[in-house]
Amino acid sequence: MASILVSLETGVLTITLNRPDKLNAFNPEMHERLRDALDRAKDEPEVRAVLLTGAGRAFCAGQDLSERNVAPGAPPIDLAVSLGSHYNPLVRRLRELPKPVVCAVNGVAAGAGANIALACDLVLAARSAGFVQAFSKIGLVPDSGGTWFLPRLVGSARAMALALLGEKLSADDAVAWGLIWKAVDDGALMTEALAVAKSLAEGPTKGYGLIKKAFHASPGSTLDAQLDLERDLQRQAGLSEDYREGVSAFKQKRKPAFKGK
Ligand code: LHQ
User: What ligand 1 atom has the least distance to the C-alpha of 21?
Assistant: First the structure.
């Protein structure tokens, strides 16, 4: 069974983590296939938005803990190797993809699985889903960007509690805390997430990529630097075909037909 399912329809590349018997936990093969799918999303102009989700009852349980022989007396393992070769490049790929990434969290998102969801641009979750910083339960540190995303999204007090206690945060609380965008009824998740992804796929793709750039630069930026960056990005956006189309459509009181150019 393929560990990642990929399908392209109406500009949306849907990527489904597909190891349901392991709650879609990551092994090296799943990392490699996900990397290939994200590279395809970047390179193919037909792909104008990505939808990431999981098969079965979970979104992703993080690293597959049955992959390694970690037991008292077993030889030590350098986990930095796995972060350096798999998880960190994955988070960078998601953030740097110049196209919007919607994440439909269909069930529990634990460990790296939770933080990979947070690396996406718009996160919708099924009401029965939950977010677990499971790392501390096995003596580890939140990774895959968790120590960066969490305090920025929910503030240090709540971030620290999530990381130290490793308790599950419900989808509704995740919305109330500002961790994710939306919680929806379980049965409506995929319809709603696909509708959002499709509407993004019909949008001004270049502009979206520039919006991502601006927001990602913001946390480490001064207002002065951010104003300069906005000026530079707006220059690029203003040179796009979609900007011309957007203004023409507005003036002609019609729906714009953006081409992503
Ligand atoms: C699993 C897993 C799993 C394998 C559930 N692996 N089988 C990066 C670099 C290198 C190394 C270390 O890690 C990292 C990043 C990380 O992600 S570290 C964090 C790794 N993930 C976890 O610690 C989460 C472990 N799982 C859980 O806490 C729970 O299973 C959650 C909260 C995800 C779901 O709980 P439940 O809904 O109660 O399900 P369950 O615990 O009964 O699990 C169902 C099955 O899935 C079970 O197998 P079984 O054969 O007994 O039915 C679990 O063993 C298996 N499973 N997570 N990560």
Answer: 46
